[in-house]
Amino acid sequence: MEAAVGAANWVVGMVLNKLSDELMAGYMASRELGRNMDQIKRDLNYMLGLLQAAEGREIADNLGLQRLLGDLCNKADEAEDVLDELHYFIIRDEFDGTREATPDLGAQLQHARHAARNTAAELSFDRVALSQKIKSLIQDIHSICPPISDLLQKCSVSVPTSMERPNTSSVITQKKLYGRDAIFDQAMEELLKGGIHHTQDYISVLPIVGPGGVGKTTFAQHLYNDNRTKQHFTVMVWVCVSTNFDVTELTRKILRSLDATESQGTNRGYETSDLDQLHKSIQEKLKSKRFLIVLDDIWEHDSSKAASTKSFTKAEWEKLLAPFGTGETNGNMVLVTTRETQDENDKEKLIDIGKQIAKKLKCNPLAAKTVGPLLRKKSTRKHWMEILEKQEWLKQKDGDASIIPALKISYDYLPFYLKKCFSYCALFPEDYKFDSLEMSCFWDSIGIIYSSGKNDKIEDIGSQYLNELYDNGFLMKVDDKHYVMHDLLHELSHTVTSSGECASINYSSFKADDILPSIRHLSITIEGKYVESFKGEMEKLKERVDIRNLRSVMIFGSYKSKRIANVLKDTLDEMMALRVLFIFINSPNSLPNNFSKLVHLRYLKIGSWSRGQMCIPSTVSKLSKLYHLKFLDLKSWDGSHNLPKDFSRLINLRHFLAKNEFHSNISEVGKMKKCLQELKEFHVKKDTSGFELAQLGQLEELRIRGLENVSREEAIEAKLKDKSKLTKLELVCGTSRTEVVSNIENHDDDILDSLRPHSNLTELSIVNLGGGVAPSWLGSNIHVTNLHTLHLHGVSWATLVPVGKIRFLRELQLRNIIGMCQFGPDFPGGTTNTSFRYLKNIMFEAMPDFAKWFGGANSHLFSGLESLHCIDCPKLNDLPLSNCSSSSPEETNTIWFPNLCCLNIKRCPELSLTPVTHTSTLTDFCLDKCVSSIYETKRYKTKLIVTMVLWPSKIWMARTKTTMPQVAFQLEHLRVDSISAVLVTPVCSFLFPTLRELSIYNDDRVKSFSDKHEGALQLLTSLKTLAFWDLKVLQSLPQGLHRLPSLTWLIISGCPEINRFRRTASPITIGVAKALCFQHLHDECSPLFGSQRWRVILSWHRKRAGLLEQGIVLISSGG
Length: 1119
Fold this sequence. Notes:
By secondary structure, this protein is α/β, with parallel strands linked by helices. Among the domains are: 2-155; 181-339, P-loop containing nucleotide triphosphate hydrolases (Rossmann fold, 3-Layer(aba) Sandwich), CATH 3.40.50.300; 343-413; 977-1119. Helix content is 32%, strand content 15%. It has 31 helices and 34 strands. The strands form 5 sheets. The chain has an 18-stranded mixed β-sheet. Strands 8-9-10-11-12-13-14 form a 7-stranded parallel β-sheet. The protein has a 4-stranded parallel β-sheet with strand order 1-4-3-2. Helix 1 packs antiparallel against helix 3, helix 21 (533-544) runs parallel beside helix 22 and helix 29 runs parallel beside helix 30 (1011-1017). Belongs to the disease resistance NB-LRR family. GO terms for molecular function: ADP binding; ATP binding. Keywords: ATP-binding, Leucine-rich repeat, Nucleotide-binding, Plant defense, Repeat. Residues 692-816 form the R13L1/DRL21-like LRR repeat region domain.
């Protein structure tokens, strides 16, 4: 019943959103449907209220109610389709200057219309038929509403009354504490000393836990008002949390309290609802101060007993504490009072129940990860027993399937919107890596993202849903950007798709008879060559399923077979209701013939094989007719970058995921400014209409090229300073300005001054814009103080930007800046104790005059630096990497860069690199072609061995005059350009425990592997990947490859002289081996791997893989 209520709530909400559209309402009124429409909106709003109140409550099973809700869903779906179609024709009227669907709304609408009309064949608008259909659906929905409303009220459990919690303050309400002296002294000691050792990223929290009414608040009040506390802390804040844990509101309360403690008055920074700005304001007020924050009465309520409470998740708690973890002083503290709802007997009972549940988890960590958060949500005996007694446990089987019931129980406790999100993940293939934006686009396109009406962005809501699924154990994070679903959870998603709505099939093995006729969403995974059964099964599928009503069609995988393309085209030719289409095309005619009639399409993802020839298909003129399109993904498109001239008709497009060349080809992009979120590149074209600077809209990301074609007046007209949503900006001139004449310098000065961005900007790049000085908004009174990233390339300013004044700067890149000889110690604009506090990455590249980074008194400001890159700096001779390079007394005992993780030095021949002895965090170290960079190897080794301060996990060493240090690195990845430098026994003896990947590049000296090389290689027992790249004279591979127990990858590229593999008595015997090599070596590879069966896949040249020629991927699949 819960699923039926949730689904009805969902579709009713979508229909109401459509009916609330102004143009839609105008059409209804013009067709004399307005009176009925008002009634149906009232009915639907009343029902929506009942459905939302019923969601999450127990509703008695009622077959009649369930069927009525199903009927309502079907009718609402039909209504949503019809209204969507009507909205499409209204948009078309606006563009074409017609009045087929548009009601007479006056001159305002007339101004939005365009004179030109496309004469190509297009959908016809039948006003009479559409009006009759709308009227019929309104009547049907109106007749269903009363019985559903009546049954919902009768079947729903009464809604509990909300609980009100009293506010508290720091004022002592009970003058004396009784019987608490010992615990009070202990708490005071913790309060005064416990936070002394907190790190920069963490804040100490002192919890006071106990049952309601035991006196937690009184105890905290006495701690707060004790003189020792007042003398110890500079700033003290008391905030009552109670039952509504809202991160933004609580943060605003804290900031309001901080303002109240300042004698100079307030800045009313708490009036914003931007959490980031609130955090920054708090950090600014707390800098250099020791503080105590009291959060009283954090009360996580049992949701079964009250409705109007909001508990908190781990992620929300971390958000609340975020601004307190970066304090500059030690001893900061957050004191918390919270309820303990169980007595000791309850705890013992929970332990017993927990043990019984644990047995059912079969020692499976995935099951524990999903059931754990479920138990943690409500630590009551009733809740835990409810889980233990679930009927799902009776379905347990042997093997991995035994934990499916545990996963299903966790799924059952998810809120409906997360159930919906999770179930639709079944459409993606196993092990599919998806990012937050892709999944947010997908969920929004099929209508399962709800906005609270607070101007929340779709992308933020989708990201929140993903994080909630992750917190509940239903997703895993591959890295900071990508998620993946465990195969057992993927299996679960298939079993819970509601009413058989989703079907995910493998084209080579599926049976059409296994697909339910009710499916609305279909995904097809294509791998390998054409399978004869595919055509027949797809024909059966077309007969079994109503293709016209499919909401999603997602094709994963690439294929060159025309037969596959033709089968897909024939099967999907009748698609009409699609919201989502993922498709791969291998010819200009691969798309279905009715592509331009997909008036409901929100999300389109197209990939291709062709390179440089095929346009966005022969339907290029039709793409711009998809007026409802919100997300267009052409990242996998390898054809032409040309776009239709009227591409800007896609006025609802939010994200255009494609190469920069696509973005720069959008004509009249200003028409898309209402929704488009980013424009990776905008090329100002002097003689081409539609590419003027004035086209720019309210974007979040923008790259402007061709500024040499822009006048000062045009730059002013762009009004970048008014674009408050713009957070990322790149300004590019087409030519380098290393040598400029004065009139061009003045032109550049004027242009940059006129392109002043809004202060909300966080990322700024300026490329090849000269001028004698930096623009005023980057000068001494810097305007863009919220910058996180600053890239300056090819500028010729006399004075560097006052980087010390950019408080939140995290990344600084300086490239090709002629005349800049030094960095520091005196920075333009000066520095403060907060300068460079957040700076993590610095890069100097192609700096012909840069010679020295001076330290001086500013050394402590760079303590957070994690990454330093110096590339192509021919005069660079000094970096403050150790006290050995210091030239002044104050630097002698200075510890520079204690958090450095990555040191990358390339082509800096004058730099004498001394040992980096003071950091224990270095993980990436690169020396590349630093012929004169000869460091003292013995001293370097001794430092490492004695102090154990350098433990890299990845080192890239190119050819230098030094031998490779023979020290106990914890290396996992090693890249060298000399076989003889690494394949020696002393080096391999140290590398063998951890080395996983060895890559050898560009060695033009070794023709074959000597006995010493072979012997050293055998020591690398942990080696999984061995790669040979561009070894032009190497004629044979090592003889003992078969004796490497962990080897799984063998990569050979750019080694033309390898024409034979030595036959070995014992071939390589590994479960899965992969070799990447030339096609002519295929036959020679096989003896290496004995009788194992090989599957051959053609691999095309890919730049990112570093392949220089076409190769063959050989995959051993065993047996």
